[in-house]
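thought: fold this chain, then report.
action: predict
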Amino acid sequence: MRGYKGKLALNHPLSFLQKDRYLIFHDVRLFDGTHFIQIDTLIISSYFFLIIEVKNIAGTLIFNSDFNQLVRTAEEKEEAFPDPVNQVLRHRLQLEKWLEFYHFPPIPIETLVVISNDRSVIKTSNNNKLPKQIIPGFMIPKKVNEFERKYPSQKFNDLNLIKQLLVDMDVPLQQDVLKRFKIDRSVLLNGV
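observation:
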């Protein structure tokens, strides 16, 4: 639920993007031929694509580049998470492979890790510089403007083609909740 709320928090900054220039997809899950790619938000334009990994994590977030992990401190407890920058870079490689498989011309793919919790404190370990991909949610329009300046030439003009392919090839995650939580079907009460 926290992840879902984090993704909803992006609706406001995403609403500042020009509707006629960008298509926005949420929770895209594609098969690259070997693995599935689960992309929180994918923004496509004729100039570049943008993969956004959303993290709605409260507390103090310390990005540790030495160990490639994210450490959260909250209520005097520390908890480690895999490095979301590595995750989103892996997604970019997978998406490049997927686009190549469907014979799309090369297109620049940018990546961002968006911290959607406004109360999170973002830090780095050992006075390292924060990776440029990590931003708070309100900065999305500014970053998109930077990418527009970085990629002024159009790569392809038919967004409907990629839009239809993304819709057709999206494979929503199907989970067996009973199996996941080890619940026998016979204990369920049927009815209204």
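thought: worth noting. Strands lie at 23-31, 36-44, 49-55, 60-64, 69-74, 77-82, 109-115, 121-124, 134-136.
final: tokens above.
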